[in-house]
Amino acid sequence: MEHYILWLLLGFGLLIIELLTGTFYLLMFGIAAFGGAAAAWLGHGFPVQIITTAVVAAIGFWLVHAYRVRNALQQMKHIDYAKPVIFEGWVDQNENLARVRYRDATWEAQVEAGAEVKAGATLYILSAEGNTLKVVKSRPDGKQK
Questions:
Q1: Predicted model pTM
Q2: Is 60 helix (H, G, I), strand (E, B) or coil?
Q3: Which of 55, 81, 126, 138 has the maximal Cβ count within 10 Å?
Q4: Is the pLDDT of residue 117 over 60?
């Protein structure tokens, strides 16, 4: 089988997976694979195909990152933004990692640096990374409870 066909199959496979994730990074990998397919179709060797793929991927990643940074303020806030949580205790105070109570469950939370909190204190959610909440001491939207 020709190399460019393999690159095309890889590119289409990545595009299909991208439709399920919506991150745009797999889209860049898919487009980069099409760059590798173009290099193979033009008769270049495998090292040139890899370099072409890597350069196209790097440019694509940079464009996606620049877009996300430029439009960060327009992106939708986390669904639990500014919701109160109850501080239960520290998991690792040096790393600002704590346990909080939210929706009748215990969650891990990354507390803002330098915040002095005691058990029972109310903190507020800024965002979430996986199952770890990012929390701050004062309500981020300025409203009172």
A1: 0.55
A2: helix
A3: 126
A4: yes
